[in-house]
Amino acid sequence: MLTHLLCCEPPTTIQREGKHFETTYMTNDGSISINKLQRICNAIATNTHIVDVCFDSPFGLSDVAVHRQPRLFEGLTINTSINSLGISRCNLSVGVGYQVLNAYKKNSQQLTKLAVWRCLPLHSDSIYTLNLCSTLSACTNLQELSITSCGINCLIVSGIVDALRGGTHTQLEKLDLQKNCIADGAVKLASLLKDTNCNIKVLALQDNIIGNLVARSIAKALSINHTLEAVYLDGNRISEEGWDAFTSALCNPSSLDATYSSNHTLISLAGNENEQQIPNKLLSLLQLNKGDSWVDQSHIKKKKSYVIRQKILQTHLTSDFDMEPFTEEDMIFYMIPHVLAWVGRDEEDVQSHSAMFSLLKEMPTLCAPTRPSHPVTMPEKTEHACCIDNEDVAKQQQPLRKGKSKLGSFLGSVRRFKGGMKDYKQKVVYSRAA
Fold first, then answer.
1. Residue-wise DSSP of 221-285
2. Which distant-in-sequence residues (6+ apart) come within 8 Å of 285 by Cβ?
3. Strand, helix or coil for residue 114
4. Which residues of 64-96 are buried (b: 16+ CB within 10 A; e: fewer)?
5. Residue pair 250/282 in contact by the 8 Å Cβ criterion
6. Partner of 167 at 20 to 30 A CA spacing, among 15, 60, 151, 314?
7. Contacts (Cβ under 8 Å, ≥6 apart) of 188
8. Under 8 Å between Cβ of 212 and 219
């Protein structure tokens, strides 16, 4: 049963194999054959099993036939089974590439995957951009979009972004634009990531002459976008300044609230073989977000809570921990119990132990014993001291034995909340991380 079809001009460099795959040529021995193209398109129209079709026209011979017979690809508008379309080495301004894209403006709801590669714009970007972007705008069910090695510049990427934004492409999860010439035009992509309807999880931008300006723009968008999991930026011109923007986006150290609100979903900025380009601190944050032990998606909320907790412990509860927010009137009596309980709730976490030590070191009076409510009197020594009643001595010493440290009193007063700690004062947002 045929499910995958490659329509090409010989010779082709596309490698696909399998018992459900077939290659058919759109030309006869290098000559134009309108009838053959017509038969191919008619067969596609009536086939209900084919799910993937690719057109490869490197020499443009088929473009002449299409020019003579503009309605040659009308069969594509009738097919109801194709959900994956590939266009390789075609001219999107005229001929095969142009007509195929036009067909899927009409049959737009079928496609879930569109791949365009090595289709360079020729004399003018206007027709190329208009035809490509109008098709993208119509295909609202796309889940994967790949436009690679096509010489995309600022003008074209701007049109692509305008076609995808606005809440119409909510199913799009992968956008691959690698090996183009986007450069600073990728700033426009940051506006797409800020769109609340954007659900892209993977954005591939390798080899695009991208610099620090784009890196900062994308990093800033991560404060709003908590869906994106990978942005592949290897092979570009990003320096330490650009990588630092991502470090701050993943863990903003300016305040507890900023750390809590940082991005906890991004897990990759380059392929495994190119991670040496990324600073170690940023790599460790990406690894923390990834959390190899949290594979089970049912624990996704627990994973996020763990990541936030680790970032707060590592960033704020260190040897130079600032206790000033907790020293205001009544704050120490209401918030410190919750802080101590939150810090020490994981008995096996070394970072938690270190943070507890740092916190107590800054507030040594927490462990100081309280003064008894009334003075303790000891019996006077007499020559008959051996006759002193031991029970009387025990009663007199009882208030001292009952004296508790402030730490013990605080921990004893901690209430356990099922949903986490209460936020007693808005400026102390530390409790939200629980």
1. HTTT--S--EEE-TTS---HHHHHHHHHHH--TT-HHHHHTS-----BSS-GGGGGGS-HHHHHH
2. 247, 250, 251, 311
3. strand
4. ebbeeeeebbbbbbebeebbbbbbbbbbbbbbb
5. yes
6. 151
7. 154, 157, 158, 161
8. no
- Mean of the pLDDT values across residues 180-196? 93
- This prediction has a pTM of 0.75
421: pLDDT strictly greater than 80:
no
**Which carries the bigger pLDDT value, residue 405 or residue 289?**
289
Contact at 8 Å (CB) between 420 and 430? no
Paired residues of 147 in beta bridges:
116
pLDDT digits (tens, 9 = 90+) for 381-404: 555 545 555 555 445 544 434 444
**Burial of 98 by CB count in 10 Å (0-12 exposed, 13-18 middle, 19+ buried)?**
buried
What average pLDDT does the segment 82-87 reach? 94
**Residue that has been written with the tokens 């290098």 in this structure:** 30
Q: What is the pLDDT of residues 175-187, one digit of tens each?
A: 999 999 999 989 9
pLDDT at 194 over 80: yes
Q: What is the CA radius of gyration of the chain?
A: 33
Q: Is 204 helix (H, G, I), strand (E, B) or coil?
A: strand
385 close to 345: Cβ distance less than 8 angstroms: no
Q: Is 405 helix (H, G, I), strand (E, B) or coil?
A: strand
CA dist list (Å): 307 to 67, 92, 292, 302, 390: 58, 46, 12, 9, 57
pLDDT, tens digit, for every residue of 276-316? 889 999 999 999 998 754 445 455 556 788 888 888 878 87
